[in-house]
């Protein structure tokens, strides 16, 4: 798929300089430290160094230039309290201080100052190199992040463009009302263009289970399921009747389309593939399907269409697992709602199959639950002219009500590739059902 989005140019990444290229000289770092911290340098290095050098000079003079004087013993005279050295250089205290100095200690102090200075400068160089490397890495990360942001923006633009093109071909639907509208469009398309009308469904009647399921009734009425808490049984019955009328209208339009195509002498056919309503050995496809839908996890209750009492509430059961069946006037309150619902759905299914057969609609019965349900207006390949196809695909599995997910997810499309694929899927199910029910006799040699 080609789009109008322009490619995003990749920004140039800064070259990471090596340590050798960024290595500063020893004296450059030293002068920079002196410039930035003159007080600390003077206090911790210059003053101690000058003191040691001056002391070393005096000590050197005492030892090598005035050895005899240096080796003499001088002390404070107890009688007079004076220093007995008559050749005092500075003062008795300073002379005594210089005499007691250790040459090895002075040398060690001077060397130690330079060693400490060397270690400090070397550490500062390493820290600066690490800081430069971190800055370069941060700059690289910023560039990569900027590139990622631009790529994400470009991808978002592309996704919006792709989504727009998909939405032009596929219309998502949710709820029984939207599905019924989509099925109506398919029927009208087949009728107006003379296309084949192909139906692949678990139930012969369109949306057969919807009027009995509480969340579908609420959604069709424009309500949320919890808004039915304050509804009376009479109000609920009105909403069920509205959904039931829409389902019946679609079924009537299907029959009208079959009659119309036959009277027009068109080559188009109405073909239905649905679950078998009769026993096939130990299997009963439709009842097995209902067993998956109406199982022990769902709740089936009854209501009276003329009652002003509130609906029964059960907070422990989700609304998509709640089914409501009308209470017949002749039936007692203690009747089994599960049995009543299954009986009504089975009778409707069998009756609809008979009505379709009477109208000349080709009905193929299968013995396995369908993962998808299809309503297709399929153009006839041999028919001249341009004819557009249309398809409604209802997604879901047989383990949920109406054979689909709780939100009744479906889509409508006229894309020829999708319609052709769905048409092929329909004929695969139809052919498989015919092969499984047809007897083949071959001579025994």
Output the strand order for the largest sheet.
Answer: 1-9-8-7-2-3-6
Low-confidence stretches: 1-21, 397-406, 439-445
- Count the domains: 2
- Care to count the β-strands? 9
The percentage helix is 40-55%
Explain how this protein is built:
The protein starts with 18 loop residues before the first helix and ends in an 8-residue tail after the last helix. 25% of the residues are buried. It has two domains: 26-156, no CATH class; 170-295 and 339-439, no CATH class. α2 crosses α3, α3 (38-65) runs antiparallel to α6 and α7 (176-193) runs parallel beside α9. Helix content is 52%, strand content 11%. Strands 1-9-8-7-2-3-6 form a seven-stranded mixed sheet, sandwiched between helices. The protein is α/β, with parallel strands linked by helices. Keywords: Membrane, Transmembrane, Transmembrane helix.
Topology:
Blueprint: H1 19-22, H2 26-36, H3 38-65, H4 67-71, H5 92-100, H6 103-169, E1 170-174, H7 176-193, E2 196-200, H8 214-220, H9 233-263, E3 270-275, H10 285-293, E4 299-303, E5 322-326, H11 337-358, E6 362-366, E7 373-378, E8 390-394, E9 409-413, H12 416-437
Helix pairs in contact: 2-3, 3-6, 7-9
Brief digest:
The chain is built from 12 helices and 9 strands.
Describe this protein with a few key phrases:
445 residues, disordered C terminus, alpha/beta, two-stranded parallel ribbon, transmembrane helix, disordered N terminus, transmembrane, membrane
């Amino acid at each position: 798929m080609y789009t109008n989005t322009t490619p995003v140019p990749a920004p140039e990444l800064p070259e990471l300089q090596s340590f050798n290229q960024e290595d500063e000289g020893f004296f450059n770092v030293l002068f920079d430290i002196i410039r930035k911290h003159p007080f600390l340098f003077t206090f911790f290095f210059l003053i101690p160094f000058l003191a040691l050098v001056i002391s070393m000079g005096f000590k050197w003079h005492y030892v090598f230039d005035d050895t005899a004087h240096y080796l003499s013993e001088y002390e404070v005279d107890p009688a007079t309290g004076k220093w007995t050295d008559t050749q005092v250089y500075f003062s008795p205290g300073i002379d005594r201080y210089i005499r007691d100095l250790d040459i090895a200690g002075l040398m060690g102090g001077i060397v130690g100052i330079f060693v400490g200075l060397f270690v400090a400068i070397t550490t500062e160089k390493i820290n600066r190199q690490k800081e430069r490397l971190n800055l370069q890495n941060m700059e690289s990360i910023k560039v990569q992040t900027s590139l990622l942001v631009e790529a994400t923006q470009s991808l978002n633009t592309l996704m919006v463009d792709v989504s727009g093109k998909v939405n032009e071909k596929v219309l998502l639907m949710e709820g029984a009302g939207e599905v019924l509208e989509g099925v109506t469009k398919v029927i009208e398309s087949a009728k107006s263009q003379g296309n084949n009308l192909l139906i692949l469904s678990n139930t012969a009647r369109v949306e057969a289970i919807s009027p009995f399921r509480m969340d579908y009734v609420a959604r069709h009425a424009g309500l949320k399921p919890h808004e039915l808490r304050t509804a009376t049984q009479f109000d609920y019955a009105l909403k069920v009747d509205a959904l039931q009328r829409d389902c019946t209208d679609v079924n009537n339009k299907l029959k009208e389309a079959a009659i119309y195509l036959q009277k027009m002498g068109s080559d188009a056919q109405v073909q239905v593939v649905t679950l078998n309503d009769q026993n096939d050995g130990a299997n009963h496809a439709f009842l097995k399907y209902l067993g998956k839908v109406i199982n022990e996890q769902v709740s089936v209750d009854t209501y009276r269409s003329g009652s002003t009492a509130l609906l029964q509430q059960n907070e422990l059961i989700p609304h998509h697992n709640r089914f409501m069946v009308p209470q017949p006037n002749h039936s007692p309150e203690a009747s089994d709602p599960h049995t009543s619902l299954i009986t009504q759905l089975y009778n409707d299914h069998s009756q609809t199959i008979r009505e379709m057969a009477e109208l000349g609609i080709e009905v193929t019965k299968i013995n396995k639950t369908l993962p998808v349900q299809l309503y297709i207006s399929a153009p006839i390949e041999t028919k001249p002219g341009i004819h557009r196809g249309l398809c409604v695909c209802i997604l879901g599995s047989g383990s949920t009500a109406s054979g689909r997910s709780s939100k009744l997810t479906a889509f409508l499309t006229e894309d020829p590739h999708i319609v052709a694929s769905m048409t092929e899927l329909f004929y695969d199910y139809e052919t498989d059902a015919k092969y499984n029910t047809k007897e083949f006799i071959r001579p025994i040699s």
